[in-house]
């Protein structure tokens, strides 16, 4: 549970909202969700968000502010999610307009409020990050920050969505999409075709297909594996061209896979489901290598919609939530 932390420096109190995680060797490590500042700032923070009378004397108001924050934090939880690699892959896919390419070639279909191309792009990212069974997609995506950034309920992003997205895609459609993707990439990277084909032969069959596989779906699966390979190669080239030329693909993937983000949620008692309302988020501490690679990832152009999705969630919840009461 997030906690209000007081630190006294030269006789003055400074406040922050923090949680903890297990660091190297299993030792607890503090993660600051929000730095508030001095006791005066704490009062301003509370008055702006909770039901505390700002006209009360400072001493009693400060005590009430502290109590109000502690009471509020009892209704919150924090959770750490995979962030670096999933978000990097998705930003690369957006910069390549991958979903738009697939939607322009495949028959139109809406699944869980997303287009067919968006679902298939997420599937390709899943295969790129760590190839696994289609049945494991829902568990993987729920362990990442992608549902929050896409403003999509994690419980709807399941393997069933992938099966639906795979329906009705003929071989000539995949061939057409493949030609468009490679044409775009070979314009940017003339030497990429040979590397991709070699990597594709080595990495296309990580899955162990056992459930409802038809020849058509098997072809789509192999196609998505190859799209995932392309996304990884493009990520590697982008990072190397933006300040990290000495890193190879394996090093980039390993470092980004260790970057996590902590989200703080308010658990509402108004609903039987115990709805979790996102309030704050922050990256877990990174080492110098991770920070350098993450800076390069942040240079990847992302669509305005997805870049602002998480911010929109927080702005609305901070504005609409009554912090002093359920």
Describe the structure.
It is a single chain. The chain has helices spanning 39-49, 58-73, 84-95, 98-105, 116-129, 137-142, 146-150, 159-166, 171-188, 192-203, 215-241, 249-257, 288-297, 304-320, and strands spanning 3-9, 12-22, 28-38, 76-82, 110-111, 114-115, 260-267, 276-283. It is of the alpha+beta class and 326 residues long. It folds into 2 domains: 3-74, no CATH class; 82-256, no CATH class. The strands form 3 sheets. The chain has a 3-stranded antiparallel β-sheet. A hairpin with a 2-residue loop joins β5 (110-111) and β6. α3 (84-95) crosses α11, α4 crosses α5 (116-129) and α5 (116-129) crosses α11. The two termini are 18 Å apart. Mean pLDDT is 77; it is low at 193-211 and 304-326.
Summary, kept brief:
The chain has 326 residues and is an alpha+beta fold.
Number of E strands: 8
Number of domains: 2
Helix content: 40-55%
Query: Which structural class should the secondary elements be placed in?
Result: alpha+beta
Largest sheet: 3 strands, antiparallel
Shape: elongated
Distance between the ends: 18 Å
Mean pLDDT: 77
Number of helices: 14
**Unreliable stretches, pLDDT < 50, 5 or more residues?**
193-211, 304-326
- State Rg: 23 Å
What is the topology, as strand order, of the major beta sheet?
A: 1-2-3
Order of helices and strands: EEEHHEHHEEHHHHHHHHEEHH
Strand content: 15-25%
């Amino acid at each position: 549970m997030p906690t209000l932390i007081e630190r006294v420096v030269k006789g003055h109190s400074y406040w922050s909202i923090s949680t903890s995680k297990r660091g190297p060797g299993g030792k607890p490590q503090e993660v600051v969700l929000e730095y508030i500042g001095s006791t005066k700032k704490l009062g301003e923070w509370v008055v702006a968000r909770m039901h505390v009378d700002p006209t009360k004397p400072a001493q009693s108001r400060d005590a009430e502010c502290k109590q109000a924050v502690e009471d509020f934090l009892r209704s919150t939880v924090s959770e750490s999610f995979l962030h670096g690699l999933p978000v990097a892959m998705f930003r690369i896919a957006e910069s390549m307009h991958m979903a738009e390419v697939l939607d322009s070639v495949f028959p139109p279909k809406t699944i869980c409020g997303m287009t067919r191309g968006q679902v298939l792009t997420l599937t390709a990212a899943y295969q790129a990050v760590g190839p696994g069974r289609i049945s494991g997609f829902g568990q993987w995506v729920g362990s990442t920050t992608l549902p929050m950034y896409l403003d999509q309920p994690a419980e709807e992003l399941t393997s069933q969505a992938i099966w639906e997205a795979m329906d009705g895609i003929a071989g000539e459609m995949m061939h057409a999409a493949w030609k468009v993707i490679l044409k775009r990439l070979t314009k940017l990277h003339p030497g990429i075709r040979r590397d991709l084909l070699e990597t594709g032969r080595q990495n296309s069959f990580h899955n162990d297909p056992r459930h409802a596989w038809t020849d058509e779906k098997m072809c789509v699966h192999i196609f998505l594996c190859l799209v995932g390979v392309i996304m990884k190669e493009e990520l590697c080239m982008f990072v190397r061209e933006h300040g990290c030329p000495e890193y190879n693909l394996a090093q980039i993937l390993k470092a980004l896979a260790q970057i996590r983000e902590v989200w703080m949620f308010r658990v509402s008692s108004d609903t039987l489901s115990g709805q979790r309302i996102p309030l704050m988020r922050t990256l877990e501490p990174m080492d110098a290598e991770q920070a350098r690679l993450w800076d390069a990832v942040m240079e990847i152009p992302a669509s305005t919609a997805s870049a602002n999705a998480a911010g929109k969630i927080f702005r609305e919840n901070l504005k609409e939530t009554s912090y002093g009461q359920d």
